[in-house]
Amino acid sequence: MSRELRNRRRIFSLILLLVFCCSAQVYAVQTVRVMALFPGKAMLNIDGNNRLMKVGQSSPEGVKLISADSNEAVIEVDGKRDTYTLGSVVGGNFAKPETREVKISHSPNGAFMTTGTINGRLVDMMVDTGATVVAMSEVEAKRLGIPYRLKGKPAGVSTASGFTQAYAVMLDRVKVGEIQRQNVEAMVIKGSSPIHVLLGMSFLKQVEMENQGSMLLLRSKY
């Protein structure tokens, strides 16, 4: 083989290598979604591809899982690390999703009242940190089309009027302002009380709360 031919092959190989490197640099991860979290592992959807990753592992797309537990994961992309919770969606610039906030004012009777939706239907809500779950009367449940007798689990609750029959149900969606949570535990109480839906801790524990006196600030955790 002549020296000229060998030189041509070397040049051709270098060109192929440069093309490959440039192509690799052009590709950039567009979206990462945290699908599931486990101790030491996380299920990430990276540009439409599901990746079950262990701590310390890097995906073919270049996303590295730094740490993970059942509450959050630390993800590194392009040398940038940040902490994300279940359901977080990270865009191409890998900045944290914009925090959603809702401000709820005191009503004349001193309660924090707001309007929200349950399963897409409009409802009046009263914030009640003393309620373990979201609670409503069976009158309200019927208006919202919640099949509490068919799908609910019979239970009993203690109210101001005494012990009352109720049904434990799971609400598909509860939304206050721009904050929405899915699969929220609730209780349907027999009768016409409470008048308003009680926004209890099954929803509130999933947000950050800040009492600012005459204003209650709800901030999305994720």
Automatic annotation (TrEMBL):
Signal peptide location: 1-28
Protein origin, superkingdom: Bacteria
Coiled coil (residue ranges): none
Keywords: Signal
NCBIfam families reported for this sequence: clan_AA_DTGA
Record protein name field: Aspartyl protease
Species in which this protein is naturally found: Solemya velesiana gill symbiont
